[in-house]
Design goal:
- It is a single chain.
- The protein is an alpha+beta fold.
- It has five helices and four strands; from the N terminus they run βαββααααβ.
- β2 (43-45) and β3 form a beta hairpin.
Length: 197
C-alpha cells in the first residue's frame, strides 16, 4: 500500500485584524480650519486678499480658525482641551456667517470685482467646519480594520518517512520486511514459488 507523501507545513502564518476607531469629526473640523487660514492669504477679489480687503473681519476669521483648531485638538486629545466643546457651534457658526456676509456684501474697495479663489475656498472651509462640528458633537467615528503584525510560529512538520538507521542511511522497504524494488513481480498466470512452512 503506497503512502501519499504530504508537503510539510513548517510554518503557519497568523494574521490578526485589529479594529481601530477614529473620531472623524475633529479631523474634518481641523482640516476646515486650516483651509480657512490658507484662504485668507489667497485672492478674495481680483488681486486683493482678505488681509488687504478687510479691516477687522480678517483678524476675526483667523482667530475663529485658530479656536476651531484648538477645539479639534481638544476633541482628539482630551489632555489638550483648551476650548470648551460647548463653544464649538458658536465658533463655526460665526465663521460661516462672516464669510457668507463678505461674499454677499463685499467691502467698498472690492464692490465691482469678481470673487476669487480665496473667497470660495474660505466658504467651503466654513461648511467643512460646520460638518466637522456636527460629526464631533454627534460622536460619529470611523472604524478601520488594521492588519496586525504577521506572527509566525513553527509547528511540527508531517513526515511519513521512516526513521534513519544508526549510520544515517534511510531505511528501505526491504529492510522493513517489505518488498524490495529489485524483486521481480509475479504475474497472475504464474503462481509465486512455494515457501516452507
Amino acid at each position: 500500500m503506497s503512502h501519499r507523501r504530504r508537503r510539510p507545513a513548517d510554518r503557519i502564518a497568523i494574521l490578526l485584524l485589529v479594529t481601530r476607531r477614529f473620531d472623524i469629526g475633529p479631523v474634518v473640523l481641523a482640516l476646515g480650519a486650516i483651509v480657512l487660514l490658507v484662504g485668507l492669504f489667497l485672492d478674495w477679489y481680483d488681486g486683493i486678499n482678505a488681509w488687504d480687503a478687510f479691516e477687522v473681519v480678517d483678524v476675526v476669521l483667523a482667530a475663529l480658525a485658530v479656536a476651531a483648531l484648538a477645539a479639534a485638538a481638544g476633541l482628539l486629545l482630551p489632555d489638550a482641551d483648551l476650548v470648551d466643546r460647548r463653544a464649538l457651534p458658536w465658533i463655526v457658526g460665526a465663521a460661516f456667517v462672516l464669510v457668507s456676509v463678505q461674499l454677499l456684501n463685499p467691502p467698498p474697495s472690492a464692490a465691482t470685482q469678481d470673487l476669487g479663489l480665496g473667497a470660495w475656498l474660505s466658504f467651503g472651509a466654513t461648511v467643512a467646519m460646520i460638518a466637522g462640528a456636527v460629526l464631533s458633537l454627534g460622536h460619529v467615528s470611523l472604524a478601520v480594520a488594521v492588519e496586525g503584525r504577521d506572527r509566525r510560529r513553527r509547528v511540527a512538520a508531517v513526515d511519513h518517512r521512516p526513521p534513519p538507521t544508526e549510520t544515517g542511511a534511510p531505511v528501505t522497504p526491504a529492510a522493513r520486511g517489505g518488498e524490495s524494488p529489485q524483486q521481480p513481480r509475479w504475474s497472475e498466470s504464474e503462481p509465486p514459488p512455494a515457501t516452507g512452512s
